[in-house]
């Protein structure tokens, strides 16, 4: 499997996810759901690496992507200076995506997974509050919260289907991607999801940049030395992990 085939797999899943929402009249007002292609790629790591994959795994991946779409829709209500009507529509969109994920898994008789993912969503909500309240959380605690927010449902999916060995790569890569997006937006003086809300992160941007370099270097080393990952997957991961760094160098050069 080469990069073109990997991209085709990711795009096919993205299309399948969008198909689940195509009949919603909400799309006329809120647009298509937010689907992070990098997150989708790392959700699909087991499939891309040749693991056995059937209809249930496929349905579960679509459901998990809808969970993140629901969370993103609700976050837009908080982040944007929207009118009351727009806020209500975004909330309805988020609720619609949540209902679709539940419907998909219930039809596939994955009631236990529904319960586990519901607990994941509750945990994500709890950790997001760390960036709104005034309690003193450490830098390490906040970075840990970011990682959980960005990856917890995918971790649960991988554990549920016994893809345990992929969890580390997925979590580290999604944490790295999120931190890079934060720093890039911060340097462009644009709104950020985490830094703007946290005095600890805002006053430790240099430490955050150091953390990014440390995670990236360690992850690349672990990927390249992995006996689990096939060469085409290693290449695809490293390419995605280093992409943002190369773009930054070109911008600064």
Which geometry do the CA atoms define?
globular
- Low-confidence region ranges: 246-253
Q: Total number of helical segments?
A: 12
Query: What structural class is derived from the secondary structure elements?
Result: mainly alpha
**Annotated CATH topology:** Farnesyl Diphosphate Synthase
Largest sheet: none
Number of domains: 1
Content of β-strand: under 5%
Distance between the termini: 34 Å
Provide the CATH architecture.
Answer: Orthogonal Bundle
SSE series: HHHHHHHHHHHH
| Strand segment count | 0
Name the CATH superfamily classification. Farnesyl Diphosphate Synthase
* Rg, alpha carbons: 18 Å
Helix proportion range: over 70%
Pfam families: HEPPP_synt_1 (PF07307)
InterPro entries: HEPPP_synth_su1
Protein name: Heptaprenyl diphosphate synthase
Keywords:
Farnesyl Diphosphate Synthase, 253 residues, disordered C terminus, mainly alpha, single chain, 12 helices, globular
Quick recap:
The chain is an all-alpha fold.
Give the topology, please.
Blueprint: H1 3-19, H2 27-30, H3 37-43, H4 45-48, H5 55-79, H6 84-107, H7 111-128, H8 139-160, H9 167-187, H10 199-202, H11 205-225, H12 231-252
Helix pairs in contact: 1-5, 3-9, 5-6, 7-8, 8-9, 9-11, 9-12, 11-12
Description:
The protein is mostly helical and 253 residues long. The chain has a single domain (3-252), classed as Orthogonal Bundle (Farnesyl Diphosphate Synthase). It is 75% helix and 0% strand. It contains 12 helices and no strands. The protein has helices at residues 3-19, 27-30, 37-43, 45-48, 55-79, 84-107, 111-128, 139-160, 167-187, 199-202, 205-225, 231-252. Helix 3 runs antiparallel to helix 9 and helix 7 runs antiparallel to helix 8 (139-160). The longest helix has 25 residues, at 55-79. The chain starts with a helix and ends with a helix. Mean pLDDT is 90; it is low at 246-253.
């Amino acid at each position: 499997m080469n990069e073109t085939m990997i991209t085709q797999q990711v795009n096919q899943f993205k299309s399948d996810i969008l198909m689940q929402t195509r009949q919603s009249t909400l799309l006329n007002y809120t647009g298509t759901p937010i689907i992070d292609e990098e997150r989708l790629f790392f959700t699909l790591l087991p499939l891309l690496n040749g693991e056995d994959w059937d209809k249930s795994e496929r349905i579960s991946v679509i459901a998990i992507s809808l969970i993140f779409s629901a969370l993103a829709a609700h976050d837009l209500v908080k982040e944007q200076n929207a009118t009351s009507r727009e806020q209500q529509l975004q909330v309805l969109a988020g609720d619609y995506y949540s209902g679709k994920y539940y419907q998909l898994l219930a039809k596939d008789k994955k009631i236990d997974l529904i319960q586990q993912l519901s607990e994941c969503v509750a945990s994500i909500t709890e950790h997001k509050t760390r960036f709104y309240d005034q309690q003193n959380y450490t830098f390490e605690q906040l970075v840990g919260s970011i990682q959980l927010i960005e990856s917890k449902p995918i971790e649960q999916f991988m554990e549920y289907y016994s893809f345990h060995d992929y969890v580390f790569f997925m979590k580290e890569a999604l944490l790295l991607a999120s931190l890079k997006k934060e720093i890039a937006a911060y340097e462009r003086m644009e709104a950020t999801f985490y830094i703007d809300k946290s005095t600890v992160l805002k006053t430790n941007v240099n430490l955050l940049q150091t953390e990014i370099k440390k995670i990236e270097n360690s992850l690349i080393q672990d990927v390249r030395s992995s006996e689990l990952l096939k060469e085409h997957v290693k290449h695809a991961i490293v390419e995605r992990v280093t992409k943002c760094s190369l773009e930054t160098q070109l911008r600064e050069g």
